[in-house]
């Protein structure tokens, strides 16, 4: 059951057996061959919601701490190259986006004998290298995962933004695996100095460029990005409040991350929604309205409804709107759903022949391990497609 509930389908009983028998090399190969971002996932995989949740040992006493064993193996051995490339077949695949989905697909495609060119407007590694707080995920872990790209048959073009299929003519297949853009607040004052997007905040924190000592910060949202933003602000000296429009039990964040944020000293305010960010030239406060929960919406959660006459103001110097993301409007040649995500079938194929998509931009790759699973799925489908077209 644990392996079945792992999106990357790591042979969990197998690698634990090898640990018990003292063969860490074999355990490492089991883990890394199934999950190219194994070092990263050893730190950030939400195992309590996935494999550990299905651990049958929990029926006896408590479930095995699978992620911790996984992390023990990858940290003990460091980097090992488990990729087994085949002779190149003369066909090239373009991958747009060098996060977990794109990197995973590239490594699986090189094992199938296909040359890969990866394009990313920033650096290789995606969200793990740029936006997950270093207190949760050491950069060295991500760097070990992406080191496997340094091999014949894979070329990486950093700082190269691609927005249309016309820029990728000459490739035999294309995989779209780029990241999302933030949904900004559409209220008065959203453009004031002191309103900071979570991506900018988290990236600057990873680069050690921030100091918020003594600042009053309000983070708006209830997901993991909101919690990461609050964590970073608190680490950098701010007094932090998270404001969320529903009750805690309806927040999309993981329980483990909420606990860590509580313990960090972050305050939480529920059933409130921002109406206006106040200030002349820069943020001075936020006007909120209290909410009550109404009928269920399309997400299955109760819809927040404003309570008339319940407005109030919270003083603030910084506002971080962590209210969700959507796919940027690049690659107009492929169909999208009404939320802007790229439509794919069960194989990762888009509406355009020879074009595939994986990761966050499909609306499905919300965690690193889920993005890895989508990258593997897309690589398999691309290899099958190129094999048929030979």
From TrEMBL:
Annotated protein name in UniProt: Dihydropyrimidine dehydrogenase
Pfam family, one: Pyr_redox_2
Domain named FAD/NAD(P)-binding: residues: 91-375
Domain Dihydroprymidine dehydrogenase: 1-76
Entry-linked InterPro entries: DPD_II, FAD/NAD-bd_sf, FAD/NAD-binding_dom, Helical_ferredxn
GO terms of molecular function: iron-sulfur cluster binding; oxidoreductase activity
């Amino acid at each position: 059951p644990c392996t079945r509930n792992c999106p990357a389908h790591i042979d969990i009983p197998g690698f634990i057996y090898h640990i018990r028998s003292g063969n860490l090399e074999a355990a490492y190969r089991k883990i890394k061959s199934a999950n190219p971002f194994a070092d990263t996932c050893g730190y950030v995989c939400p195992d309590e919601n996935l494999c550990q949740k299905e651990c049958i040992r929990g029926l006896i006493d408590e479930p095995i701490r699978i992620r911790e064993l996984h992390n023990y193996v990858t940290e003990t051995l460091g980097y090992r190259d488990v990729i087994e490339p085949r002779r190149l077949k003369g066909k090239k695949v373009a991958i747009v986006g060098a996060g977990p989905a794109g990197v995973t697909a590239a490594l699986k495609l090189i094992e199938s004998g296909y040359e890969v060119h990866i394009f990313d407007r920033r650096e290789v590694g995606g969200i793990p290298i740029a936006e997950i707080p270093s207190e949760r995920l050491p950069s060295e872990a991500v760097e070990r995962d992406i080191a496997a790209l340094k091999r014949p048959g894979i070329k990486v073009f950093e700082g190269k933004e691609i927005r249309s299929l016309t820029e990728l003519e000459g490739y035999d297949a294309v995989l779209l695996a780029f990241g999302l853009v933030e949904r900004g607040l559409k209220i008065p004052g959203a453009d004031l100095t002191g309103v900071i997007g979570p991506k900018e905040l988290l990236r600057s924190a990873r680069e050690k460029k921030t100091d918020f000592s003594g600042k009053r910060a309000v983070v708006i949202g209830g997901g993991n990005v909101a919690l990461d933003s609050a964590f970073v602000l608190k680490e950098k000296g701010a007094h932090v409040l998270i404001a969320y429009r529903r009750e805690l039990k309806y927040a999309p964040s993981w329980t483990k991350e909420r606990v860590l944020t509580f313990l960090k000293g972050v305050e939480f305010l529920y059933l409130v929604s921002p109406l206006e960010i106040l200030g002349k030239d820069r943020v001075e406060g936020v006007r909120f309205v209290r909410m009550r929960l109404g009928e269920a919406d399309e997400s299955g959660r109760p819809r927040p409804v404003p309570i008339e006459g319940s407005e109030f103001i919270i003083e603030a110097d910084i506002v971080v709107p962590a209210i969700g993301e959507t796919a940027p409007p690049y690659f107009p040649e492929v169909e999208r759903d009404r939320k802007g995500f790229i439509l794919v079938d069960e194989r990762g194929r888009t509406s355009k022949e020879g074009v595939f998509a994986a990761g966050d931009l499909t609306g499905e790759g919300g965690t690193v391990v889920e993005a890895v699973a989508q990258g593997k799925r897309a690589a398999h489908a691309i290899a099958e497609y190129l094999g048929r077209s030979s």
